[in-house]
Amino acid sequence: MRDFYQNGPELSNTFTSDNYLKSFFEKNVPKDYHKTIFEHLTHVGHLASSTWLDWAADAESHPPKHVPYSPWGKRIDLIETSEGWKNLEKAAATEGIVATAFERKQKEFSRYYQMALLYLYSPSSAFYSCPLAMTDGAARALEIYGEPDLKAHAFKNLISRDPKTFWTSGQWMTERTGGSDVSMTSTVATKSDAKHYTLSGTKWFTSATTSQMTLTLARPEGAAEGNKGLSLFYLELRDQKNQLNNIEVHRLKDKLGTKALPTAELTLHNTPARLIGAEGDGVKKIASVLNITRVYNSICALGHSRRALDLAWDYAKKRKAFGANIIDHPLHKLTLQRLEDDFKKCFDLTFFVVGLLGKEECGAATELDKKLLRALTPILKLYTAKKSIVISSEVLESFGGAGYIEDTGLPRLLRDAQVFAIWEGTTNVLAMDFLRVCEKEDGVAALGEFLKKKGSTKIGLLMDPKWKDTANARDLVFLVAELVAEVL
Question: Are 306 and 410 members of one domain?
Answer without folding.
Answer: yes
